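BAG family molecular chaperone regulator 2-like protein structure dump, as promised
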Amino acid sequence: EVVTKFLDDLGNAKSHLMSLYSACSSGVPPGPVDQKFQSIVIGCALEDQKKIKRRLETLLRNIENSDKAIKLLEHSKGASSKTLQPSAENRFN
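structure tokens r here:
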């Protein structure tokens, strides 16, 4: 239950970061754009805009890596509990 809530929050964080990242992109954004953030970024110097975009890219990458790590951990936890069950049953037989 806690993991599910965390993953939901992670998904919400990722979608919010994507809207911020879209505000920094010059091309056609893949999703919604945070208009307020975009107007703030446009007011920044070009070098600062690049820094903001790089930081958002890093945060998005970190979220992706966290999501993958959690899924791997859940998978390995599920696999280890399945392997532990038969050995526990053998001890009682």
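The chain has a mean pLDDT of 81.
lmk if u need the other ones
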